[in-house]
Specification:
Length: 183
C-alpha cells in the first residue's frame, strides 16, 4: 500500500499547501516539496467529499494532508499546545495519512468566509464558536456536513481539520516510507 498523491486532474481540488510555504504558524517552510499525500482510505473519503461539494456548486481547497512526524515536531516546537497541535510523542492523524486540513471555495477558487484563517490557534477557530459572523457559521456547518457525509470526523478545536473516525488505528508513517519524500 502506498499513499495517494492528491492533485488535479485525479482529484478536482485547489491546493494551498501551507507547510511548503512560510505562510503557516512557524513562519517558515516545513516541507521541502509541495505534495499532498493521503492513505488510500482517506483519499477515497476525500473523493466522496469532492463530489458532495461539487453538488453544492463548491470546491475544496486543501491546506495539508499527510504530515511526517518531523513536521509535527516543527509545529509542536512553534506551539506546544495540545489544544491545537498533537503531541508528536503520541503522533498525529496527519502522521498516519488519514487527516486533511481544508476549506470550501467558490467555483472561481475564492475561499468561503470561515471566521478565521487556517492555523488560527485561538478558541474563535473552534467549530462551534458563535462569535464569528452568521455567514461564517453557516459555511463551517456546510463544510462539516459535506465532510461528515463523506465519512470524515471533525476536530472540534479546528474548523479546517478532518480525520477518518478510526484514525488512531493507522500506524505513524515516516517521511518517504509510503510515497515520495516531503521534507
Amino acid at each position: 500500500m502506498r499513499f495517494v498523491p492528491i492533485a488535479p486532474p485525479d482529484f478536482d481540488v485547489d491546493l494551498d499547501l501551507r507547510y511548503a510555504t512560510a505562510d503557516n504558524l512557524t513562519g517558515r517552510p516545513i516541507f521541502a516539496r509541495p505534495l499532498c499525500l493521503l492513505h488510500p482510505a482517506a483519499a477515497a473519503a476525500l473523493s466522496r467529499a469532492i463530489g458532495l461539494a461539487a453538488a453544492q456548486g463548491l470546491r475544496l481547497r486543501v491546506f495539508d494532508g499527510y504530515r511526517p512526524p518531523a513536521a509535527q515536531w516543527a509545529l509542536w516546537n512553534a506551539l506546544p499546545d495540545p489544544t491545537f497541535i498533537a503531541d508528536p510523542r503520541i503522533g498525529s492523524s496527519h502522521g498516519r495519512g488519514v487527516a486533511v486540513d481544508l476549506t470550501l471555495a467558490a467555483p472561481d477558487g475564492v475561499p468561503l468566509e470561515m471566521g478565521t484563517g487556517f492555523d488560527d490557534m485561538r478558541p474563535i477557530a473552534f467549530h462551534a464558536d458563535t462569535r464569528i459572523p452568521v455567514a461564517a457559521q453557516r459555511n463551517r456547518a456546510l463544510l462539516l456536513g459535506i465532510m461528515a457525509a463523506a465519512g470524515w470526523q471533525h476536530y472540534m478545536n479546528e474548523w479546517w481539520h478532518y480525520q477518518l473516525p478510526d484514525a488512531a488505528t493507522y500506524p505513524l508513517v515516516e517521511d518517504g516510507a509510503l510515497g515520495p519524500r516531503i521534507m
